Amino acid sequence: MYFIKLVALVLYVLSFSFSKYSMAEQLSASDIIQIAPSPNGELSSMALTAFGELVKGKRIVALGEQTHGAGNVFTLKSQLIQYLHQHHGFDLFVLESGVYEVDQLWQAAQQGQSIKSLAPGNIFYMYAKSEEVTPLFDYINKQIKTKNPLILTGFDSQHTGELSNKYLVRDLEEALLTMNNSLISTSQWQTLKRQLQQVLNISTERLGNNEQTIFFKHLRTVQQAFKQHTDAFWYRITVGLEAQAKRQWSIQDTRSKEMGENIKWLAEKYPNKKMVVWAHTWHLTKEGNNEINAGKVLSDHFKDDYYMVHFTGVNGRYLDFIDMKIKPVKPVESNAIESAVNKLSASKINFIDLKNVKDKVQELTLYANDYNLSLPSNVWPKYFDGVFISREVKPANFIE
After folding, report:
1. 0.90 cut: is pTM over it?
2. What are phi and psi of 216, to 5 degrees?
3. Most CB contacts within 10 A, which of 57, 146, 179, 258?
Protein backbone atom coordinates (compact mmCIF):
# COMPACT_ATOMS: atom_id res chain seq x y z
CA MET A 1 0.00 0.00 0.00
CA TYR A 2 2.82 2.37 0.91
CA PHE A 3 4.56 1.60 -2.40
CA ILE A 4 1.39 2.39 -4.38
CA LYS A 5 1.01 5.72 -2.60
CA LEU A 6 4.66 6.52 -3.26
CA VAL A 7 4.31 5.76 -6.96
CA ALA A 8 1.14 7.87 -7.13
CA LEU A 9 2.96 10.79 -5.50
CA VAL A 10 5.88 10.51 -7.92
CA LEU A 11 3.52 10.41 -10.89
CA TYR A 12 1.67 13.46 -9.57
CA VAL A 13 4.90 15.43 -9.19
CA LEU A 14 6.07 14.41 -12.65
CA SER A 15 2.74 15.30 -14.21
CA PHE A 16 2.76 18.70 -12.49
CA SER A 17 6.31 19.39 -13.68
CA PHE A 18 5.44 18.28 -17.18
CA SER A 19 2.35 20.48 -17.25
CA LYS A 20 4.45 23.51 -16.34
CA TYR A 21 7.03 22.58 -18.94
CA SER A 22 4.49 21.95 -21.66
CA MET A 23 2.68 25.17 -20.82
CA ALA A 24 5.90 27.12 -21.29
CA GLU A 25 6.57 25.24 -24.52
CA GLN A 26 3.22 26.30 -25.99
CA LEU A 27 4.97 29.41 -27.24
CA SER A 28 5.39 28.78 -30.96
CA ALA A 29 6.91 30.38 -34.02
CA SER A 30 3.47 31.72 -34.97
CA ASP A 31 3.55 33.93 -31.87
CA ILE A 32 6.72 35.63 -33.05
CA ILE A 33 7.10 38.48 -35.52
CA GLN A 34 10.39 37.59 -37.17
CA ILE A 35 12.28 40.62 -38.46
CA ALA A 36 15.12 39.99 -40.87
CA PRO A 37 17.59 42.84 -41.39
CA SER A 38 19.56 43.16 -44.61
CA PRO A 39 23.27 42.20 -44.63
CA ASN A 40 24.15 45.81 -43.71
CA GLY A 41 21.65 45.81 -40.83
CA GLU A 42 18.90 47.85 -42.47
CA LEU A 43 15.26 46.99 -41.81
CA SER A 44 12.89 47.34 -44.74
CA SER A 45 9.36 48.64 -44.35
CA MET A 46 8.15 45.17 -45.33
CA ALA A 47 10.11 43.61 -42.45
CA LEU A 48 8.40 45.96 -40.00
CA THR A 49 4.87 45.76 -41.43
CA ALA A 50 3.49 43.35 -38.82
CA PHE A 51 4.85 45.46 -35.96
CA GLY A 52 3.52 48.62 -37.60
CA GLU A 53 0.04 47.17 -37.96
CA LEU A 54 0.08 46.29 -34.29
CA VAL A 55 0.88 49.81 -33.03
CA LYS A 56 -0.34 52.13 -35.77
CA GLY A 57 -3.55 53.01 -33.92
CA LYS A 58 -1.81 53.98 -30.67
CA ARG A 59 -1.34 57.57 -29.60
CA ILE A 60 1.98 56.91 -27.89
CA VAL A 61 4.54 54.18 -28.58
CA ALA A 62 7.22 54.10 -25.89
CA LEU A 63 10.59 52.54 -26.72
CA GLY A 64 12.55 51.55 -23.64
CA GLU A 65 16.07 50.22 -23.12
CA GLN A 66 17.58 48.14 -20.33
CA THR A 67 20.77 50.12 -20.40
CA HIS A 68 21.84 53.31 -22.12
CA GLY A 69 24.71 51.44 -23.79
CA ALA A 70 23.41 48.80 -26.23
CA GLY A 71 24.32 49.93 -29.74
CA ASN A 72 22.10 47.44 -31.56
CA VAL A 73 19.11 48.64 -29.52
CA PHE A 74 19.92 52.24 -30.45
CA THR A 75 20.06 51.23 -34.12
CA LEU A 76 16.81 49.31 -33.92
CA LYS A 77 15.00 52.13 -32.13
CA SER A 78 16.26 54.66 -34.66
CA GLN A 79 14.98 52.54 -37.54
CA LEU A 80 11.63 51.98 -35.81
CA ILE A 81 11.17 55.73 -35.35
CA GLN A 82 11.90 56.43 -39.01
CA TYR A 83 9.53 53.64 -40.08
CA LEU A 84 6.70 54.83 -37.82
CA HIS A 85 7.21 58.38 -39.04
CA GLN A 86 7.23 57.47 -42.72
CA HIS A 87 4.43 54.90 -42.72
CA HIS A 88 2.15 55.48 -39.74
CA GLY A 89 2.17 59.22 -39.06
CA PHE A 90 4.15 59.32 -35.83
CA ASP A 91 5.39 62.88 -36.26
CA LEU A 92 6.50 63.71 -32.72
CA PHE A 93 9.75 62.27 -31.35
CA VAL A 94 10.06 62.68 -27.57
CA LEU A 95 13.56 62.04 -26.22
CA GLU A 96 14.89 61.54 -22.69
CA SER A 97 16.65 64.89 -22.46
CA GLY A 98 15.78 68.26 -20.93
CA VAL A 99 12.68 70.09 -22.17
CA TYR A 100 14.51 73.42 -22.44
CA GLU A 101 17.67 72.13 -24.12
CA VAL A 102 15.86 70.14 -26.79
CA ASP A 103 13.47 73.02 -27.48
CA GLN A 104 16.49 75.22 -28.13
CA LEU A 105 18.03 72.62 -30.42
CA TRP A 106 14.78 72.22 -32.35
CA GLN A 107 14.56 75.98 -32.89
CA ALA A 108 18.17 76.02 -34.10
CA ALA A 109 17.49 73.08 -36.42
CA GLN A 110 14.60 74.96 -37.99
CA GLN A 111 17.09 77.71 -38.79
CA GLY A 112 19.32 75.22 -40.60
CA GLN A 113 21.72 74.18 -37.84
CA SER A 114 22.80 70.57 -37.35
CA ILE A 115 21.22 68.76 -34.39
CA LYS A 116 24.12 66.30 -34.39
CA SER A 117 26.66 69.08 -33.93
CA LEU A 118 24.63 70.81 -31.20
CA ALA A 119 23.70 67.64 -29.31
CA PRO A 120 26.92 67.03 -27.32
CA GLY A 121 26.65 68.79 -23.99
CA ASN A 122 22.90 69.31 -24.37
CA ILE A 123 21.25 66.02 -25.23
CA PHE A 124 21.97 63.10 -22.86
CA TYR A 125 25.55 62.11 -23.62
CA MET A 126 24.88 58.49 -24.56
CA TYR A 127 22.48 59.65 -27.26
CA ALA A 128 24.49 62.67 -28.33
CA LYS A 129 27.75 60.76 -28.79
CA SER A 130 26.82 57.21 -29.79
CA GLU A 131 27.40 56.40 -33.46
CA GLU A 132 24.20 54.40 -33.60
CA VAL A 133 22.00 57.37 -32.59
CA THR A 134 23.49 60.33 -34.44
CA PRO A 135 22.19 59.27 -37.90
CA LEU A 136 18.69 59.77 -36.50
CA PHE A 137 19.55 63.43 -35.84
CA ASP A 138 20.59 63.79 -39.48
CA TYR A 139 17.29 62.22 -40.53
CA ILE A 140 15.38 64.77 -38.44
CA ASN A 141 17.33 67.62 -40.03
CA LYS A 142 16.52 66.31 -43.52
CA GLN A 143 12.81 66.07 -42.72
CA ILE A 144 12.41 69.62 -41.39
CA LYS A 145 11.44 71.21 -44.71
CA THR A 146 9.03 68.43 -45.70
CA LYS A 147 5.26 68.47 -45.26
CA ASN A 148 5.52 66.12 -42.29
CA PRO A 149 8.69 66.86 -40.32
CA LEU A 150 9.64 64.64 -37.41
CA ILE A 151 9.37 67.15 -34.56
CA LEU A 152 12.04 66.71 -31.90
CA THR A 153 11.14 67.42 -28.27
CA GLY A 154 12.60 66.60 -24.87
CA PHE A 155 10.68 65.49 -21.82
CA ASP A 156 13.16 65.25 -18.97
CA SER A 157 12.15 67.33 -15.97
CA GLN A 158 15.76 67.96 -14.98
CA HIS A 159 18.04 70.25 -16.95
CA THR A 160 21.73 69.42 -16.90
CA GLY A 161 22.87 70.63 -20.33
CA GLU A 162 25.09 73.55 -21.27
CA LEU A 163 22.28 75.58 -22.79
CA SER A 164 20.26 75.39 -19.60
CA ASN A 165 23.25 76.29 -17.51
CA LYS A 166 23.97 79.37 -19.63
CA TYR A 167 20.59 80.66 -20.67
CA LEU A 168 17.64 79.11 -18.84
CA VAL A 169 17.48 81.59 -15.96
CA ARG A 170 17.93 84.49 -18.36
CA ASP A 171 15.10 83.26 -20.58
CA LEU A 172 12.93 82.59 -17.54
CA GLU A 173 13.35 86.21 -16.47
CA GLU A 174 12.47 87.43 -19.97
CA ALA A 175 9.33 85.29 -19.93
CA LEU A 176 8.29 86.88 -16.64
CA LEU A 177 9.00 90.32 -18.10
CA THR A 178 6.56 89.71 -20.95
CA MET A 179 3.87 89.16 -18.34
CA ASN A 180 4.86 92.32 -16.44
CA ASN A 181 5.25 90.15 -13.37
CA SER A 182 6.03 92.27 -10.33
CA LEU A 183 8.21 89.59 -8.73
CA ILE A 184 11.22 90.33 -10.93
CA SER A 185 11.61 93.84 -9.50
CA THR A 186 12.11 92.52 -5.97
CA SER A 187 15.19 91.46 -4.06
CA GLN A 188 13.53 88.04 -3.60
CA TRP A 189 13.77 87.49 -7.35
CA GLN A 190 17.48 88.23 -7.37
CA THR A 191 17.95 85.66 -4.61
CA LEU A 192 15.76 83.12 -6.41
CA LYS A 193 17.72 83.62 -9.65
CA ARG A 194 20.97 82.91 -7.87
CA GLN A 195 19.55 79.82 -6.20
CA LEU A 196 18.07 78.49 -9.44
CA GLN A 197 21.47 78.86 -11.09
CA GLN A 198 22.95 76.78 -8.28
CA VAL A 199 20.42 74.07 -9.06
CA LEU A 200 21.36 74.22 -12.75
CA ASN A 201 25.01 73.97 -11.71
CA ILE A 202 24.02 70.56 -10.30
CA SER A 203 24.79 71.67 -6.77
CA THR A 204 23.80 69.13 -4.12
CA GLU A 205 24.35 71.57 -1.24
CA ARG A 206 21.03 72.18 0.46
CA LEU A 207 19.87 75.59 1.58
CA GLY A 208 19.20 76.26 5.24
CA ASN A 209 15.70 75.34 6.40
CA ASN A 210 14.39 78.91 6.30
CA GLU A 211 16.07 79.68 2.96
CA GLN A 212 14.72 76.45 1.52
CA THR A 213 11.16 77.25 2.57
CA ILE A 214 11.39 80.70 0.99
CA PHE A 215 12.97 79.24 -2.17
CA PHE A 216 10.09 76.84 -2.80
CA LYS A 217 7.51 79.48 -1.88
CA HIS A 218 8.85 81.95 -4.43
CA LEU A 219 9.36 79.27 -7.08
CA ARG A 220 5.73 78.19 -6.71
CA THR A 221 4.67 81.82 -7.06
CA VAL A 222 6.49 81.87 -10.40
CA GLN A 223 4.85 78.57 -11.40
CA GLN A 224 1.39 79.92 -10.66
CA ALA A 225 2.10 83.09 -12.62
CA PHE A 226 2.86 81.03 -15.72
CA LYS A 227 -0.09 78.74 -15.10
CA GLN A 228 -2.50 81.66 -14.84
CA HIS A 229 -0.96 83.23 -17.93
CA THR A 230 -1.42 79.86 -19.73
CA ASP A 231 2.28 79.68 -20.53
CA ALA A 232 2.50 75.90 -20.30
CA PHE A 233 6.10 75.72 -21.48
CA TRP A 234 7.51 77.82 -18.64
CA TYR A 235 5.09 76.32 -16.17
CA ARG A 236 6.46 72.85 -16.95
CA ILE A 237 10.05 74.17 -16.82
CA THR A 238 9.56 75.69 -13.36
CA VAL A 239 7.80 72.59 -12.04
CA GLY A 240 10.79 70.65 -13.31
CA LEU A 241 13.18 72.99 -11.54
CA GLU A 242 11.39 72.31 -8.28
CA ALA A 243 11.65 68.56 -8.85
CA GLN A 244 15.32 68.91 -9.80
CA ALA A 245 16.13 70.87 -6.66
CA LYS A 246 14.37 68.33 -4.44
CA ARG A 247 16.18 65.46 -6.14
CA GLN A 248 19.63 67.05 -5.91
CA TRP A 249 19.03 68.01 -2.30
CA SER A 250 17.82 64.47 -1.44
CA ILE A 251 14.39 65.70 -0.34
CA GLN A 252 12.20 63.80 -2.79
CA ASP A 253 12.61 62.22 -6.21
CA THR A 254 9.68 62.97 -8.54
CA ARG A 255 11.79 63.31 -11.67
CA SER A 256 10.15 60.47 -13.60
CA LYS A 257 6.62 61.45 -12.58
CA GLU A 258 7.18 64.97 -13.88
CA MET A 259 8.62 63.47 -17.06
CA GLY A 260 5.24 61.81 -17.57
CA GLU A 261 3.46 65.08 -16.91
CA ASN A 262 5.69 66.72 -19.53
CA ILE A 263 4.61 64.14 -22.11
CA LYS A 264 0.95 64.74 -21.22
CA TRP A 265 1.57 68.45 -21.83
CA LEU A 266 3.22 67.69 -25.18
CA ALA A 267 0.19 65.60 -26.15
CA GLU A 268 -2.00 68.64 -25.41
CA LYS A 269 0.36 70.96 -27.27
CA TYR A 270 0.23 68.70 -30.33
CA PRO A 271 -3.32 67.29 -30.13
CA ASN A 272 -3.26 65.75 -33.60
CA LYS A 273 0.17 64.18 -33.37
CA LYS A 274 1.07 60.60 -32.58
CA MET A 275 4.32 60.33 -30.70
CA VAL A 276 7.25 57.98 -30.15
CA VAL A 277 8.99 58.25 -26.77
CA TRP A 278 12.60 57.14 -26.29
CA ALA A 279 13.98 56.57 -22.77
CA HIS A 280 15.23 54.00 -20.29
CA THR A 281 12.72 51.21 -19.72
CA TRP A 282 12.17 52.06 -16.07
CA HIS A 283 10.94 55.53 -16.94
CA LEU A 284 8.41 54.07 -19.38
CA THR A 285 7.02 50.92 -17.75
CA LYS A 286 3.26 51.04 -17.24
CA GLU A 287 3.74 50.61 -13.50
CA GLY A 288 6.52 52.29 -11.57
CA ASN A 289 9.08 50.39 -9.53
CA ASN A 290 8.05 51.61 -6.06
CA GLU A 291 7.43 55.07 -7.49
CA ILE A 292 5.14 56.93 -9.85
CA ASN A 293 7.15 56.97 -13.06
CA ALA A 294 6.45 58.54 -16.44
CA GLY A 295 4.93 55.36 -17.84
CA LYS A 296 2.50 55.07 -14.93
CA VAL A 297 1.32 58.64 -15.54
CA LEU A 298 0.85 57.92 -19.25
CA SER A 299 -0.72 54.50 -18.86
CA ASP A 300 -3.25 55.84 -16.37
CA HIS A 301 -4.09 58.78 -18.63
CA PHE A 302 -4.02 57.24 -22.12
CA LYS A 303 -5.03 53.68 -21.20
CA ASP A 304 -4.77 51.39 -24.26
CA ASP A 305 -3.52 54.27 -26.40
CA TYR A 306 -0.17 53.87 -24.63
CA TYR A 307 1.98 50.97 -25.85
CA MET A 308 5.22 50.20 -24.02
CA VAL A 309 7.98 48.31 -25.87
CA HIS A 310 10.85 46.61 -24.06
CA PHE A 311 14.15 45.42 -25.60
CA THR A 312 16.25 42.44 -24.61
CA GLY A 313 18.78 39.98 -26.05
CA VAL A 314 20.06 36.44 -25.90
CA ASN A 315 23.77 37.12 -25.49
CA GLY A 316 26.46 39.66 -26.24
CA ARG A 317 27.90 42.77 -24.58
CA TYR A 318 26.89 46.32 -23.76
CA LEU A 319 28.58 49.56 -22.72
CA ASP A 320 27.91 50.46 -19.09
CA PHE A 321 27.02 54.15 -19.30
CA ILE A 322 28.10 54.76 -15.69
CA ASP A 323 31.69 53.51 -15.72
CA MET A 324 31.96 53.33 -19.56
CA LYS A 325 33.23 49.74 -19.47
CA ILE A 326 32.03 47.02 -21.81
CA LYS A 327 30.26 44.26 -19.90
CA PRO A 328 28.85 40.86 -20.88
CA VAL A 329 25.20 39.93 -21.04
CA LYS A 330 24.61 37.40 -18.31
CA PRO A 331 23.88 33.94 -19.82
CA VAL A 332 20.12 33.54 -20.14
CA GLU A 333 18.36 30.93 -18.04
CA SER A 334 16.88 27.86 -19.71
CA ASN A 335 13.38 29.11 -18.89
CA ALA A 336 13.99 32.62 -20.23
CA ILE A 337 11.81 33.88 -23.06
CA GLU A 338 15.03 35.01 -24.76
CA SER A 339 16.13 31.38 -24.85
CA ALA A 340 12.73 30.10 -25.98
CA VAL A 341 12.53 32.56 -28.88
CA ASN A 342 16.12 31.83 -29.87
CA LYS A 343 15.16 28.17 -30.33
CA LEU A 344 11.98 28.93 -32.25
CA SER A 345 13.33 31.54 -34.65
CA ALA A 346 16.48 31.87 -36.71
CA SER A 347 15.92 35.60 -37.20
CA LYS A 348 18.37 38.07 -35.69
CA ILE A 349 15.51 40.21 -34.40
CA ASN A 350 12.12 39.04 -33.11
CA PHE A 351 9.11 40.78 -31.64
CA ILE A 352 6.38 39.42 -29.37
CA ASP A 353 3.16 41.14 -28.41
CA LEU A 354 2.98 39.96 -24.80
CA LYS A 355 -0.78 40.33 -24.54
CA ASN A 356 -1.21 37.69 -27.21
CA VAL A 357 0.97 35.13 -25.45
CA LYS A 358 0.12 35.76 -21.79
CA ASP A 359 -1.25 32.22 -21.37
CA LYS A 360 1.72 30.67 -23.17
CA VAL A 361 4.64 32.05 -21.21
CA GLN A 362 3.94 30.92 -17.68
CA GLU A 363 7.09 30.08 -15.72
CA LEU A 364 9.26 32.05 -18.16
CA THR A 365 11.56 34.93 -17.24
CA LEU A 366 12.63 38.10 -19.08
CA TYR A 367 15.63 40.37 -18.63
CA ALA A 368 14.41 43.72 -17.34
CA ASN A 369 17.54 45.68 -16.42
CA ASP A 370 21.21 45.62 -17.46
CA TYR A 371 20.77 42.15 -19.06
CA ASN A 372 21.04 40.73 -15.58
CA LEU A 373 17.90 41.28 -13.51
CA SER A 374 15.06 39.00 -14.63
CA LEU A 375 11.33 39.27 -14.04
CA PRO A 376 8.86 36.34 -14.03
CA SER A 377 6.07 36.32 -16.61
CA ASN A 378 3.29 36.93 -14.08
CA VAL A 379 4.46 40.54 -13.63
CA TRP A 380 5.18 41.38 -17.29
CA PRO A 381 1.70 42.82 -17.96
CA LYS A 382 2.30 45.38 -15.20
CA TYR A 383 5.24 46.77 -17.09
CA PHE A 384 5.38 45.90 -20.80
CA ASP A 385 3.12 45.44 -23.82
CA GLY A 386 5.64 44.04 -26.27
CA VAL A 387 9.28 43.05 -26.47
CA PHE A 388 12.00 42.99 -29.13
CA ILE A 389 14.48 40.16 -28.64
CA SER A 390 17.82 40.39 -30.45
CA ARG A 391 20.01 37.38 -30.95
CA GLU A 392 23.09 39.44 -30.04
CA VAL A 393 23.48 42.58 -27.94
CA LYS A 394 26.24 44.88 -29.15
CA PRO A 395 27.89 47.71 -27.20
CA ALA A 396 27.32 51.28 -28.29
CA ASN A 397 30.18 52.96 -30.14
CA PHE A 398 30.77 56.02 -28.02
CA ILE A 399 32.50 58.95 -29.69
CA GLU A 400 34.96 60.54 -27.27
Report:
1. yes
2. -70, -35
3. 258
